[in-house]
Amino acid sequence: MKLNKLLEVLGNDIIVSGDTDIDISALAYDSRKVEPGCLFVAIPGTQVDGHNYIQQAIDAGAVAIVGERNVDTGDKPLIIVKESRHALAAMSAAFYNYPDRRLRLIGVTGTNGKTTTTYLLKWLLESVGHKVGLVGTINNLAGDKILPATHTTPESLELYQLFAMMEAEGCDYLVIEASSHALDQGRVSACNFAGAVFTNLTQDHLDYHLTIENYCQSKAKLFRQLDPSADNRYGVVNVDDAHGYVFEEACTAPVWTYGSKDSATTVRLLDYSSSSKGMHFSIAYQRQKYAISIPLIGKFNVYNSMAALTAALAEGMAVDDIIKALATAPQAPGRFELIDEGQDFMVVVDYAHTPDGLKNVLNSAEKLDPRRLISVFGCGGNRDRGKRPIMGRIAGAISDIAIITSDNPRFEDPMAIIDEVEEGIKGVCNNYLIEPDRAKAIELAINMAEPGDMVVLAGKGHEDYQILGDKKIHFDDREYARETIRRRLAK
Question: Quick check: helix, strand or coil at residue 105?
Fold first, then answer.
């Protein structure tokens, strides 16, 4: 593709130096991935500034540079833009010929429930014959092809590479988790969203956003991005959430609402009940009452199901088809996932790593009426410190026994993190233990469990690693729990 053609998508607010009538064979923002004929986009990050690697990119074969300031590029064309990330997004869309203009792209944002909601929505759409691509925390899926996911929402370049591949695989829908970081940084700024879904908003990522208001407004960008002049655009909002009105106000396309309040004008929750087999609930939709069963546990999964259901309705699916498909919906990996090796107590692994997520999971576990509820949890290092004592208070208030351990300490001292968690649990619960080694903490919980007890391993979910410093070591809560149970049963 010609550089001058590619630059047309950036408009007139750019400064161009050098000959732009040259061919571009690829895009890159990481100098280590530059190949001959590549356009290198220098992005200033929180830890690494791409402008410092321009010479390495040129040495590797970059034929032109895009950046935010005037730098020496020798005889290579330099294009100065206001925001490199937004430029990368616009150029990635053009370079891959706008696959999201031919596919229905639905974005899901919120603190909790994004992954399960995207899995459910994919399931619903596929149940009526669509082929659906998914981009999210656990995996990137192109139809049946599974690709590893490195971020909840990748950089725009990887996004459009995925979109193009999904289109080539025959997908006609794309469902994507839109994280607050991605929205704030403009990674999805060029995406042609047909629908936007808001699940909920509670404290998380304040190490980055600083305030809950900033965090909320970053997520609301997904709804502001909808083009109301285009056909079949819509927003789906959980009006039971205190921040729901922000997303309603941000959306200039039609808004579909769900929740238990009277303001839930599309889908209203009437009642629900739980069992060890799943959830049963009823909704009001278009003045009719419908009974729904899902093989997923927890009130939060009722809300995740309503989010997916409402989006599916907005996409034109019949309510009876949706209810039928929900009855056999799959379990998203690491989301209230039962670990069953024939033991006489329950073990559940969940990704809950926020105060609200932990509260929801422990409350759902408590409703299954275990003899004792034993929780194992921790907080990540180099992340929002304010939620640590809050999570301690929650675990202490709901659990019969709480075990505080490590959860991706990164560059922090695990015991320093645990000390901050312990400040919240003191005075709320005297029956708590501290074991910084996560493997030993899991062993401790499983080996103390008695018939009828329930063990909840929270924080890691689907993750199969621990981050210690700048290294990732293999560790999977589900895998280690199964091994520990088998050892116990073999005695």
Answer: strand
Confidence of residue 31 (pLDDT cuts 50, 70, 90): very high
Percent of the chain at pLDDT above 70? 97
Sign of CA dihedral 470, 473, 477, 481: negative
Contacts of 59 (CB under 8 A, 6+ apart): none
Give dist(CA 429, CA 398) in Å, integer: 9
Tell the CATH superfamily of the 99-326 domain. Answer: Mur-like, catalytic domain (3.40.1190.10)
- At residue 20, the 3 state secondary structure works out as coil
- Long-range pairs for 213-217: beta carbons < 8 A, 24 or more residues apart: 215/180, 216/243, 216/246, 217/246
The phi, psi pair for 369, rounded to 5°, reads 60, 55
Choose among 355, 347, 397: nearest CA to 379: 355
Q: pLDDT tens digit string along 119-170? A: 999 999 999 999 999 998 787 887 677 765 666 568 899 999 999 999 999 9
> How far is residue 334's CA from residue 472's CA, in Å, rounded to a whole number?
19
Instruction: Judge contact between 243 and 216, C-beta under 8 A.
Output: yes
Query: What CATH class is the domain 3-95?
Result: alpha beta
- The position carrying tokens 């609930």 is 281
Cα–Cα distance measured from residue 194 to residue 175, given in angstroms and rounded to the nearest whole number: 10
Q: How far apart are CA 220 and CA 180, in angstroms?
A: 9
**CATH number for region 337-490:** 3.90.190.20
Q: What is the 3-state secondary structure (H, E, C) of 186-212?
A: CCCCCCCEEEEEECCCCCCCHHHHCCH
User: Which residue pairs from 226-234 have beta carbons closer than 8 angstroms and sit at least 24 positions apart in sequence?
Assistant: 226/193, 226/195, 226/196, 226/251, 226/252, 226/253, 227/192, 227/253, 228/252, 228/253, 230/192, 230/194, 232/194, 233/193, 233/194, 233/195, 234/194, 234/195, 234/196, 234/314
What does the pLDDT look like over 372-429, one tens digit per residue?
A: 999 999 999 998 899 999 999 999 999 999 999 999 999 999 999 999 999 999 989 8
Name the β-bridge partners of 272. Answer: 281
Per domain, the residue ranges of the chain are 3-95, 99-326, 337-490
Residue from 328, 308, 335 nearest 319 by CA = 308
d(CA 313, CA 337): 28
Q: Is the dihedral of CA 149, 155, 156, 161 positive or negative?
A: negative
Strands 62-67 and 38-41, by their bridges, are: parallel
Burial per residue of 79-90, b for 16 or more beta-carbon CB atoms within 10 angstroms, e otherwise: bbbeebbbbbbb
User: Whats the size of the chain, residue-wise?
Assistant: 491
- For the chain, the first-to-last Cα distance in angstroms comes to 66
DSSP 44: B
Q: Cβ neighbours of residue 204 under 8 Å, at least 6 residues apart?
A: 111, 215, 354, 384, 387
